[in-house]
Amino acid sequence: MTAPSSLTHAADQGQRFLVLFDFDETIIHESSDDAVVRALPGQRLPDWLKNCYREGHYNEHMQKVLAYMAEEGVSKGSIHSAVEKIPPTPGLLNLLQYLQSHQNDFELVVISDANMYFIETWLERAGVRSLFRKIFTNPASFDATGRLVLLPFHSHSCSHCPDNMCKQVILREYLAGRQKERGGEPFQRVFYVGDGANDICPSLALGPRDTAFPRRGFPMHRLLQGMQQFKANIVPWDSGEDIMDCLKKVMKER
Question: Which residues fall within 8 angstroms of residue 207, CB to CB, at 6 or more apart?
């Protein structure tokens, strides 16, 4: 279901702005892991499995969850259907429609600690996969036995992030690589849309002209409110329209 690598994006070298999205509870209205767990016969995990979770090792925990789901007979079709049924965050599709109409100005990327199967399945169903130039997330695919096998995205030395993913490392490497591909031209502004505690670390890489969009009332928002030194602008959001309104103002500044 991966989009072809030859997929072309309008004015790929000349887009002025980069918009980065988290996935769970940012693009979609809930955790994709929680939605898929409801495909189990009892619609919930047994306590012994829930209690296996270790702080900072969520990817490892989800590997065990997916193995358990396979043992319980949850099929690929059931998982696929559960992912497709997850509702978008309010106003999110309107935001993406706006960004689609301004593809010459905005480059879109997903950075998520979910997994590639869930994300691509949902984006394809919503008809918006082609809007995203790149998806950074944990690899996941079904093996010959019908089990969804999850792997960590990378290893890193950041002490603030889960062991399988530091979004700041991903963001910094992407910005450096794109600037080189763009003939040394950096993005004029970077926008980061998220909700969770693991969205703080990449937001620290943003500069004074950039904007962090934390979902109002979620961990990212609460943590940013307590930070004394933060370079980027902070614009809390309740719906995709809030983000769209801000981007429209930026467009008028050209």
Answer: 190, 231, 232
